């Protein structure tokens, strides 16, 4: 890799030397107008082809830049046809852009990592540019993605949304890659994708590209389900001051009460360029509001028959109630759970998101640009994983250093997370519950005896052993057991909440992570050196440095550090007078914990003419287990969570010398019945020991998938765009967890291969055995099928109609449902958008309708037991008005205009309408 980077640096220096010797600088000027009304166009991009320099037009449609001549200028703007103008001498230019066509044929980068027409991409792809984002009926740029076909969006909270494509969805979603200026937005230690929580201010977004489906052949392990690539605005091209103030309300007529709550967002961007060589930009945005409430208290206790669940169930386990997961089966009484606390009592619904960004750009020459950028993000959000987590004051810092040219880049970046105030709300409820329990003499017991003592009090009261308490009465027994319970809102409760949310590991509910990730990558486009073929190649190195002080990993003394690298090459060739484009690519990745992995991709695009394009592709994807999947070593009391990297379990004998949990259960039940009938201990063990089964859990390895896709994309009369596709995917090696039980000293098998009686005896006692939850893979194979179709119609007078629909189907084949991650995708979903950005000279509008089918959600929050996500439909809308003299845009908008409270994942909050007004001042 060092030799590779050195080669790229050498090429960069060579290009710089050549440029300095040969270039003759000329200052070019011109004006860009709309031919329909002869009005100047503001914000048109004017770039020099083959170089890194460019600019944008000002309020009068004027531009100027210095470059060597002859040169080719690339003129582009959303909603207008892209033009290339050859300039041979210094003469003022008058350029008229044809409207509308560019919206149907955009320039795409992410599909092949080089610029190409969106009509001829080898895979299906979506793109939104700054103007489309600004006009979208959405409160944020991330929310606007909900209108794209194939997108599944899940709202964990007001400041945290997450997207996915093509199924196997979860809220953290580490199977979907999100890049901002090439920087990975995934948490280094906790492993969740940042989604809308962190990133850049909407004011700095130039474009967003979305690839649904595997993109591992070009982007590596995380792009298993797809890729979201956000590009920010260059301070050379977008200069000046932009300020936005947004105010609004949510929780209108919330069925959970509390009344409407205020929402606000303040954002500012300033960029300045000096002599077309040096430029900088500053961005900041601050969102503040009241989070959506998670108030589904449905009884989901797995040990109670469905017909017996509900508020009268003494063993109730409420979905968004924490502490009642602790339960016991009491002799002669049945299953009883502790009294829990509602989520609103143990979390914080006052949330915020702060995003700050600064970047310095220096053009070493017309062909080479150097960039340093830092992003600092901090916020509070409620996040759903295996528990609901309060990400309180969670900080996320990214730094990027990049050297790029017209046909190469070298990029190095770091990602650091700081989680010291975050906590697990479920664990917090349990810890608070253990602080106030009294024994039968009225004395508060130590925290380690609290649960057992509470059940003892309950049993005594129910069985009539407590004076003054009605026997055989669950309500009375619970009231007696809860005597002295700390009530929410009291000083004692607040003190306990503060204490245990800042203690970590077995001592509290705090979530500590100071983990970092470092990444270096490069790409070179060799196409200019070959006339007959287009070739690109690139590679990367990645290094994880974990720091949880022993609360998540065994990293107090044994540092957890993970290295991986990858490289790819891609070649494409056009044939038959540019009507057929063939592309093949392959990528090799190696993580220190796994064997190397090769992911190929091949595609063909047939274009009988420029407006009609048929594509077929074969794609592969893989996903490395996260660092948590590999190296977690967390004692949670009843069991130890153990990551699947071989070195992580060294000396524990968990993978090598253990029994399956199911066989231990069968053996224990049979042994209990035998001894109850009077059989001596040793004989009962010998008689039933063969019911035990030695586990055969493999060490963890990457997930794998293959997909075939066909599609068509075409434009008719420059007014109508069709994009349809069908795919079939095959998946294997899905990451799962398996519970095993290990005898503490004896070997599982005797010398002759039979079950060792000594091991069977140890398994019978919790003091001579250890339970592990192991991270591993399932051998099961499953498949998926899906199709999507979209149509965009450009109507007269600026009206635009866009509609899309997506169908997805999961085929479990012969797989064990317990060995496959949840598909978590509705079978059908649709979007329809009607808009006109130029209804009048000053007024524009946009309305979107979203609908999706009902489906069952399986998540770790409910231990992968299903919960309903009802079908829903909602409308987003906005109206804008230009205050031309003030250089300001007024926007009145609503997300979920009808205020339908919808749930997008079982256990997540119900999300209602958000109504807002924004003012955006822009000097561009």
Automatic annotation (TrEMBL):
Residues 374-897 form the TonB-dependent receptor-like beta-barrel domain. It is found in: Cell outer membrane. It is a multi-pass membrane protein. GO terms for biological process: siderophore transmembrane transport. Residues 1-23 form the signal peptide. The keyword Cell wall biogenesis/degradation does not apply. The keyword Transit peptide does not apply. It comes from the Bacteria. Pfam families: CarbopepD_reg_2 (PF13715), Plug (PF07715), TonB_dep_Rec_b-barrel (PF00593). Keywords: Cell outer membrane, Membrane, Receptor, Signal, TonB box, Transmembrane, Transmembrane beta strand, Transport. This is Outer membrane receptor protein involved in Fe transport.
């Amino acid at each position: 890799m060092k030799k590779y980077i050195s080669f790229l640096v050498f090429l960069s220096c060579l290009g710089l030397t050549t440029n300095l010797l040969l270039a003759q600088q000329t200052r070019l000027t011109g004006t860009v107008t709309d031919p329909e009304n002869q009005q100047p166009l503001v914000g048109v991009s004017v770039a020099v082809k083959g170089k890194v320099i460019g600019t944008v037009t000002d309020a009068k449609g004027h531009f100027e830049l210095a470059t060597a001549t002859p040169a080719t200028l690339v003129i582009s703007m959303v909603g207008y046809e892209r033009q290339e103008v050859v300039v041979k001498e210094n003469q003022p230019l008058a350029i008229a852009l044809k409207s509308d066509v560019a919206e149907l044929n955009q320039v795409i980068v992410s599909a092949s990592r080089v610029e190409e027409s969106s009509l001829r991409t080898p895979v299906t792809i979506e793109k939104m540019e700054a103007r489309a984002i600004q006009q979208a009926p959405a409160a944020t740029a991330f929310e606007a993605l909900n209108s794209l076909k194939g997108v599944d969006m899940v709202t964990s909270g007001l400041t945290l949304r997450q997207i996915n494509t093509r199924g196997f969805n979860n809220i953290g979603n580490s199977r979907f890659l999100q890049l901002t200026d090439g920087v990975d937005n995934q948490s280094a230690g906790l492993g969740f994708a940042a989604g809308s929580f962190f990133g850049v201010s909407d004011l700095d977004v130039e474009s967003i590209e979305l690839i649904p489906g595997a993109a591992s052949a070009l982007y590596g392990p995380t792009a298993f389900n797809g890729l979201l690539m956000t590009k920010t605005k260059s301070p050379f091209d977008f200069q000046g001051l932009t300020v936005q103030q947004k105010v609004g309300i949510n929780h209108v007529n919330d069925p959970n009460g509390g009344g409407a709550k205020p929402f606000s967002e303040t954002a500012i961007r300033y960029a300045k360029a000096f002599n077309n060589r040096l430029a900088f930009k500053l961005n900041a945005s601050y969102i503040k509001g009241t989070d959506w409430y998670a108030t589904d208290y449905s009884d989901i206790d797995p040990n109670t028959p469905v017909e017996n669940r509900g508020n009268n169930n003494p063993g109730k386990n409420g979905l968004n109630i924490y502490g009642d997961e602790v339960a016991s089966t009491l002799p002669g009484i049945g299953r009883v759970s502790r009294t829990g606390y509602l989520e609103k009592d143990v979390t914080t619904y006052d949330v915020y998101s702060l995003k700050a960004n600064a970047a310095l750009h220096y053009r070493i020459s017309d062909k080479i640009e150097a960039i340093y950028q830092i992003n600092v993000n901090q916020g509070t959000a409620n996040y759903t994983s295996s528990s609901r987590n309060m990400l309180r004051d969670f900080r996320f810092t990214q730094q990027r250093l990049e050297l790029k040219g017209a046909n190469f880049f070298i990029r190095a970046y770091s990602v650091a997370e700081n989680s010291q105030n975050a906590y697990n709300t479920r664990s917090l409820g349990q810890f608070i519950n253990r602080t106030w329990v009294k024994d039968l003499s009225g004395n508060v017991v130590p925290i380690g005896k609290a649960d057992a003592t509470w059940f003892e009090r309950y049993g005594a009261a129910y069985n009539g052993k407590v004076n003054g308490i009605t026997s055989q009465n669950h309500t009375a027994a619970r009231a007696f057991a809860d005597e002295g319970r700390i009530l929410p809102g009291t000083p004692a409760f607040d003190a306990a909440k503060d204490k245990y949310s800042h203690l970590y590991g077995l001592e509290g509910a705090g979530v500590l992570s100071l983990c970092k990730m470092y990444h270096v990558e490069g790409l070179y486009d060799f196409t200019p050196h070959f006339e007959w073929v287009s070739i690109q190649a690139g590679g990367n190195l990645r290094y994880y440095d974990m720091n949880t002080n022993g609360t998540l990993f065994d990293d107090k003394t044994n540092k957890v550090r993970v290295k991986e690298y990858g490289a790819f090459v891609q070649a494409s060739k056009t044939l038959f007078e540019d009507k057929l484009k063939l592309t093949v690519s392959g990528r090799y990745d190696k993580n220190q914990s796994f064997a190397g992995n090769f992911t190929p991709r091949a595609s063909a695009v047939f274009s009988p003419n420029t407006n009609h394009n048929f594509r077929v592709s074969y794609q592969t994807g893989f996903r490395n287990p996260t660092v948590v999947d590999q190296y977690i070593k967390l004692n949670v009391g009843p069991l130890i969570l153990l990551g699947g990297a071989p070195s992580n379990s060294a000396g524990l004998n968990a993978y090598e010398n253990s029994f399956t949990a199911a066989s231990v259960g069968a053996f224990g039940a049979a042994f209990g019945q035998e001894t109850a009938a009077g059989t001596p201990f040793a004989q009962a063990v010998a008689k039933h020991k063969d019911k035990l089964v030695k586990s055969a859990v493999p060490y963890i390895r990457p997930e794998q998938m293959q997909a075939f896709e066909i599609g068509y994309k075409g434009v008719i009369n420059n007014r109508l765009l069709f994009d349809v596709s069908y795919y079939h995917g095959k998946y294997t090696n899905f990451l799962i967890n398996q519970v095993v039980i290990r005898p503490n000293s004896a070997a599982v098998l005797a010398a002759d291969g039979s079950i060792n009686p000594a091991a069977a005896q140890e398994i019978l006692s919790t003091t001579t055995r250890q339970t592990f939850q192991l991270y591993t893979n399932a051998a099961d194979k499953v498949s998926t099928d899906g199709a999507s179709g979209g149509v965009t119609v450009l109507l007269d007078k600026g009206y635009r109609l866009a509609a899309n629909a997506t169908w997805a189907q999961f085929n479990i084949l012969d797989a064990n449902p317990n060995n496959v991650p949840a598909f978590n995708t509705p079978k059908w979903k649709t979007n329809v958008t009607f808009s006109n950005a130029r209804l009048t000279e000053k007024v524009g509008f946009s309305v979107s309708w979203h609908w999706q089918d009902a489906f069952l959600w399986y998540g770790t929050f409910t231990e992968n037991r299903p919960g309903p996500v009802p079908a829903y439909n909602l409308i987003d809308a906005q109206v804008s008005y230009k205050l031309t003299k003030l250089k300001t845009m007024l926007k009145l908008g609503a997300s979920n205009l009808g205020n339908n409270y919808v749930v997008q994942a079982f256990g997540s909050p119900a999300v209602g309408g958000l109504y807002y007004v924004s003012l955006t001042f822009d000097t561009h």
